[in-house]
Amino acid sequence: MSDTAVLDQAEAGGTRTQPQYEVVVVGAGVAGIYQIKRLVDLGIEATVLEAAPGLGGTWYWNRYPGARFDSESYTYGYSFSRELLDEWHWKERFSSQPENLKYLEFVADKFDLRRHMQFDSKIESMTWDEANNIWRVIIEGDGREVTCRFIVTGLGLLSAPTLPRLPGMDRFQGESFHTHFWPHEGVELAGKKVGIIGTGATAIQVIGEIADKVGQLTVFQRRANWAAPLSNGEISDEEMADIRARYDEIFEICARTPGGFEHEPDRRGFYNLTREERVELWDSLYGSPGFAIWLRNFVEIFIDDEANAEFSEYVADKIRERVDDPAVAEKLIPTDHGFGIQRVPMETNYYEAYNRDNVELVDISETPLEEVTETGLRTSDKEFEFDVIVYATGFDAITGAFDRIDITGVDGEKLADRWKEGPSTYLGMTVHGFPNMLMLAGPQSGSASTNFPRGIETGVDWATEMLEYVWEKGYTRFDATVEAEADWTRHVEKMYSSMLMRKAKSWFTGYNSNVEGHEAGKIRYYVYNGGAPKFVARLADVAQADYEGIDFA
Ligand code: NAP
């Protein structure tokens, strides 16, 4: 096939450009891999365009020490193939990055998917061609054009890393990098003086992992973050056999819980129980594996200030028990938000790291970072020398990856302009004025706010079935209506009103101090808070009603 679109003279009404591909899938991560599998199975002419030299998305890039799931591994794997479930052995309850990447490669190879993937193909722009009902995609670097009828994005929620806006960032003579770009050949840390900026889920994994391996570790914390033990462990052959036998049951439980995990919320009612009964639950949850502490907790923790405050104080006491120096412990206890209203980082040896002589906590809310120097970092109080600076400073979440592609829809409208003040979508799957584009885990999608692969399978299945409907009917264009998009966006916004998370400075609310316009003060309604079961039901209803809210032509 040639690189430019083919002209089909036979098209009724004159000359119409036929696209090279029926579908382009953007991204070869967890979402893109399953999406291309579904399309290949249907015999559709489709390709994946991936910016990286390899597949895996998040698990290709994030190679920092300590990177691992905080979903139970066996709930993170794909559920679509019994054979795959039977063949793969998860070795740890919360599997680490190298193994996760191996898994995704295993899946791609097992189903022979690599030949449908084009790597090193970072998309520069996507432009809707209204005359021909096709998308024109330009690849960065060689300027190659790829055309397609439909685009399905699997861009990732957290794939646009952000660095602080500090003077002197390029002056530092040692090694420095964002955790997302941790050097693939590894970094020699033994005996080194390491500075790390950030105390989000990423930093908390790194710190717990490297504290006993580096010479000196200095942690620059702007705001403390609530974290709780991950409690990882190995999965024996016998346990894995049991998991295999229970897969149907496991996925059924995941499907009925709001977060897509095995963890089901406690619905007994916070105020129906005595303080002793509440503490009894919390004692059983603190230290039990994974998100249990967050997602098996009382529902009120998420919506009621008083309930949240009582539980937060319980966790604060745990931090005080684990950190030797009371002054350091107090600094590690968040004061600006309660437990669980930001995404909870799961940790291994995080708090114990601060009991080591070679680990120092610097509170940059008191003494802000002022610049990067040739030899390290300078705060308003003093200068620090480092061999390595690690930026664990987060991501321009969810819409960031879209904003980094020049996406032009009907009448030359840019998606970045449309979403400047925050996203609006229909079902988190489509955007009016950007026809023939489906988003897997886009903003406001229920697929984005659950245990990722569980949500992704929902998104991919719905997108694929919708495309099958389009092909069956012989349509070449679809577009969400203005009304349907406005209704959904209002619905998503309304759900934030009951959630304490609306008050948090977190990526759930579109906060990121490193991105202009995303500083604190304005909520961006990024995630659907209705939970997976309601989202799945809504998608099914829309499909059942001949995709109401979407115009076809
Ligand atoms: P993050 O939660 O956004 O944390 C970024 C950290 O960097 C925060 O502590 C932030 O401080 C700090 N920071 C950012 N810019 C700064 C600046 N200019 N100066 C000083 N400090 C700055 O990012 P993340 O830790 O990478 O985690 C993002 C998400 O990725 C998580 O919520 C999670 O969903 C996902 N994740 C998942 C896993 C897993 O599955 N196991 C592991 C890691 C991450 P402030 O709080 O003051 O802004």
What does it look like?
This protein has 553 residues and is α/β, with parallel strands linked by helices. Helix content is 31%, strand content 16%. It is built from 17 helices and 22 strands. Strands 3, 4, 5, 6, 7, 8, 19 and 20 form an 8-stranded mixed sheet that branches. The longest helix is centred in the last third of the chain and has 22 residues, at 452-473. The chain is globular, with a radius of gyration of 24 Å. Mean pLDDT is 96; it is low at 1-13. It binds NADP nicotinamide-adenine-dinucleotide phosphate.
What is the straight-line distance between the termini? 27 Å
What hetero molecules are bound to the protein chains?
A: NADP nicotinamide-adenine-dinucleotide phosphate
Molecular shape: globular
- Give unreliable regions as ranges: 1-13
Question: Sheet bearing the most strands, described?
Answer: 8 strands, mixed
